[in-house]
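Expect chain and fold; thus:
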Amino acid sequence: MKLAGNWKLQWFEPGTRAPLEIASPDFTDYFWLDAKVPGDVHSTLVRKKVIDDPFVGHNDMKCRWVEDKEWWYRTRFAWDGEPEDDEAVELLFEGLDTFATVYLNGLELGRTENMLVEHAFDVTGLLRQGENVLAVRFDPVHLPVRDKEKSYWCGFEKDRIWVRKAAMNFGWDWGPRLATVGIWKDVHLRKWKKARISSVFPRTAAVRDGKAVVEVDAEIARRPGVEEPLTLEISLTGDGRSVSGCAVLTADGRSLSSAHLPEQKARVVFEVDRPKLWWTHDLGEPYLYRLAVALKDAEGRVLDRAEHDFGIREIVLEERHESGENLFCFRLNGVRLFAKGANWIPVHSFIGAAEDERYKKLLALARDAGMNMLRVWGGGIYEKDVFYRECDRLGLLVWQDFMFANALYPDYNRNFMANVRDEAAKAIRRLRKYTCIALWCGNNEIDWLYEREKTAGRITTPLYGRKIWHELIPELLHELDPTRVYRPSTPYGGNDHNAEDVGNRHNWQVWHGNVEPRKFGEPALQNISVEGVSFKNYKKDRTRFSNEFGMHASSNRHTLERYIPEGGFYWQSEEMAYRNKDIFHEKGMLLMEGYTGVPRDLDQYIRYSMLTQAEGLKYGIEHYRRRKPFTAGALIWQLNDCWPGTSWSLIDYGLLPKASYYYARKFFAPVAASIDHDPGKPLVVWLVNDLQEAVEDELVLEVVTFEGRVVRTEAVAVSVGPNEARKLAEYAEEELLGGAAPDAVAVRLRSHGGRFPDNVYYLRDFKDLRFPPAQLSVERSAERRTITVTTDRLARFVMLDIPQEEVVCSDNFFDLFPGESRTIELRHLSGGEIRIEAIAVSAINGEAEAGG
């Protein structure tokens, strides 16, 4: 029974009213605010117009008072019937944010202090026939930790050291401080008799000789006094076939669970002939079987059921190449995988109010961009189940962090560690059943930054928290999920945790200007200059696996304009600066100065920042992919935004992709041609093939002036093996130019057989190119939802400026060669209308004809 309706919300000054008075069934809540559950306080107040939208202007500062109040939720619900002697009723909160006290019919059931996991209360015998009243009190997040030691290192707000909630709620370098509160996930009453299934863990034990061995572990909780044997029946159905098995559980061999219920474990082993394996979408079909589990009593009555999808797959992390060189390479079903993807942050500042559809849209966009892995970053949440279900379905692997980021944590405190132990165990039990999870990771950047800061003398304490990710979590994983690889931190490995030759790396030489390489004990230096932050530094990186790197770009014009107050939407306004939560805003300016030149106005800033981000990521990822398998992963920081700001994201808050997203569709393509080139040096042509079959094709290289004259055409035979990166050809720059100026030509790679997308290069940085003005012709079809663009001269970075949310193009921010046309198809992610006539079309060096 889900308790989703009839919720009321009100606030009080902390400690001014007796809790039992407000929790009493007789308390009058008639004039309280109606509230949605799941949800949160801020979203309710916005909907009721008690506060202005925190995303507009500086309104987030105006609603800080919310986190200082005591908040109460109340609901009334009907209950019919008394439980039988061997029947139990449990009240389950999937998410309470954060310091909550729960009352049923005026009785205090207990307190919680962890947003990140579920909380259950035994309410057997406490429910009344007819109407019942459930109340939840939330204390201000700062009160329970006000007397705690917080003098040691912590990035951003120090209260979060002790508070087990999403760290980004306290503000990060891409989002504002909005410390949420409320019932952020579903609430259930769960009735069960004799015993129930508490957890199911299916896994692939082996795949060999055309057979798969699948092991399914089930954890069963019995009611006290239930001694009869129970039967567990498990079936796996798919590909037109079904296999099944069962296990009998006697009353012997039980242990006491954390819920103080006698707990049992049972295992059923299947052998599946000719299994259909689960692959990432770029390598094959992410095939899912249906797993069904039924628990029966001695009379054969079904006591409980559990069902979910399961993919048969093997995944390992390979850390040594056959040549002896270090690797950090995932093998999926025996195939070396180049991990292409991005980092995932919470989809909204108000996570509880975010709808499942937002998850589905973002994940489909990631898949459509050619991504095969996402990293759930450790400063957010263990994501909602919809995230992992969709990743299973779409064929996306997941790097899963535990929720510890950029701080020391009080592992010396017994109560804190008990809270963390409960959190980690619950997170593992909930998530381990998902096929998509490839790796567990203990924390984000703590070991790396601790050593740097300690070397600099800014940290003098021990590594508080070390017991969590070096002892507690691996101990729990050994017990609860020994099937996946575990990394204590990211980055981690080598003589400096961010070394390029061992383990994985966060490349923040680009953007942050970190000077690399360094070793343990050496000073950590930064070079905040045009050269120091330049994306050209990616080519120096010989990392094994880069799972954080990126640079800022503006959100789309519509997304910014909607949330910036009138009079504040102009270049270098205070309101525009407020959208950027990073420190040292000049880093973005330096990046643009080195590549596009410094923008003069808002329009140039939007275009130049997007162009720099897109070209910079292309430059880095093509370099990484050419190094496969010795570099075996590139996860961009970051996929998405939680609010309408300026950040590293590829998709802005309005679900409008930036230029870098459209570039990603090409640089993440399973087969991709690229050029490695520096000004005045040879052009080296490569083809990368991530597929399991060879590519036979003809690559056509064209050198074309901006006016449309073809300077040179070269045809190159392509024969590249499965899962291979190969150098195809090399050309001296002067030879290819044939007397043309290097600042007035474009080089295009094309596939004669359509095996890979076109790729366009320029032999000098954008600021040094001499583009003539281009005249664009535009034809629109509202019926077909298309826009066709034609140009007389090369049109650089043709932009369809979308004036509404959730519209995606078949292509955008593209280069159009002289005399060529391109028809762009548009779709609305929610199936809504698209205002085709309102879409402005232009290039950096050209405008559309009047009326176009």
Notes: The CA atoms of residues 166 and 380 lie 5 Å apart.
